[in-house]
Design a protein that fits this description.
Elements (H helix, E strand, L loop, with lengths): L5 E6 L14 H16 L3 E6 L7 H4 L6 H25 L4 E5 L8 E2 L2 H9 L3 E5 L9 H11 L4 E6 L4 E2 L11 E2 L1 E3 H6 L7 H9 L4 E5 L5 H6 L6 E4 L1
Parallel strand pairs: 1-2, 1-6, 2-5, 3-4, 3-5, 6-10, 9-11
Antiparallel strand pairs: 7-8, 10-11
C-alpha cells in the first residue's frame, strides 16, 4: 500500500552534478529519473521541482557584480535547462514527462496551471515545475512548497545527499544526532537549515509535511512512498 499517493519531489541542481564540479552528470540523471519512473509505475503521482545551482545560482551572481533581480532570473533559467534534461531522460527510458514553466516560454514548456498538471499526473506523466515561482527573491525551496500546496501533494520529499535531519552537520560531526520526526516549530527554534523560512512557513501553515531523505541511495524513494521509515519527517 502506498504511503504517499501524490508527492512533490524537490531536488537540488547540485545533485545533478554527480562527481563533476558543474553541469549535468549523465549517470546521476539516469539514476534519478529511473527511480522516479519506478514509483510512477506504482501509481504515485509525481511533481518535481529542480534547482539550478549546478549551472548558475542567482545569489552568487551578486559577488560578481550582477544585479540581484537579473541574477535570480538567470538562476531560474538554469532550472529550465535542468528540467529539459530530466524530461528528455524520461522520454529516453520510455517514460512520459511534461515540463511546466512559471512564465510563458513556449515552445520550451507549458505555462503552469493546476488543472493541466493534475490531468498530466493522472495520465502517468512526471510533471516538472521550472522557473521557480516566476519571481526574483524566492528560492526553489519556496517554489517546491508553493507547488506542493497547489497540487495538494501528500508531502514534499526533499532529496538530499544525507539520510535525514540532524542536530549538526553529519558530514562535519560523526556524532551528530538524527531526528526521525521533528516539528516545524522545533526545527525553526533549533536553527536547523532544512528549507528557507518562507518555504517552511508555507508548509507549516498548510499542514504539508516535509520528508528529508537521501536520494542518492538506490531504492530509497520507492521504500519511502511505500511507507518505510526513511529519512526525517518534519510536520506540525
Amino acid at each position: 500500500m502506498l504511503q504517499y499517493k501524490r508527492i512533490l519531489l524537490k531536488l537540488s541542481g547540485e545533485a545533478l552534478m554527480g562527481n563533476n564540479d558543474h553541469g549535468i552528470d549523465g549517470s546521476r540523471l539516469y539514476d534519478y529519473v529511473s527511480e522516479i519512473q519506478e514509483v510512477i509505475q506504482l501509481g504515485v503521482e509525481v511533481g518535481i521541482v529542480i534547482g539550478g545551482g549546478n549551472i548558475f545560482r542567482g545569489a552568487s551572481g551578486i559577488e560578481t557584480g550582477i544585479d540581484r533581480v537579473k541574477g535570480d532570473y538567470m538562476g531560474m533559467l538554469a532550472t529550465v535547462i535542468n528540467g529539459l534534461a530530466i524530461q528528455s531522460e524520461f522520454e529516453r527510458i520510455g517514460g512520459k514527462a511534461a515540463l511546466f514553466t512559471a512564465i510563458n516560454m513556449e515552445p520550451v514548456g507549458i505555462r503552469y496551471n493546476k488543472p493541466q498538471v493534475l490531468h498530466a499526473m493522472k495520465e502517468g506523466f512526471a510533471t516538472i515545475f521550472t522557473f521557480g515561482t516566476g519571481n526574483p527573491y524566492f528560492t526553489t525551496d519556496t517554489a517546491a512548497a508553493l507547488r506542493g500546496v497547489e497540487i495538494e501533494a501528500n508531502a514534499v520529499l526533499k532529496g538530499t545527499r544525507v539520510d535525514g535531519v540532524y542536530n549538526e552537520d553529519p558530514e562535519k560531526n560523526k556524532n551528530a544526532i538524527k531526528f526521525d520526526t521533528i516539528s516545524f516549530e522545533e526545527a525553526y527554534n533549533k536553527g536547523l537549515k532544512i528549507m528557507d523560512l518562507t518555504a517552511f512557513t508555507m508548509c507549516s501553515e498548510n499542514n504539508l509535511p516535509v520528508v528529508v531523505f537521501n536520494m542518492n541511495k538506490k531504492g530509497n524513494l520507492k521504500r519511502l512512498v511505500m511507507g518505510e521509515k526513511i529519512g526525517t519527517i518534519v510536520g506540525n
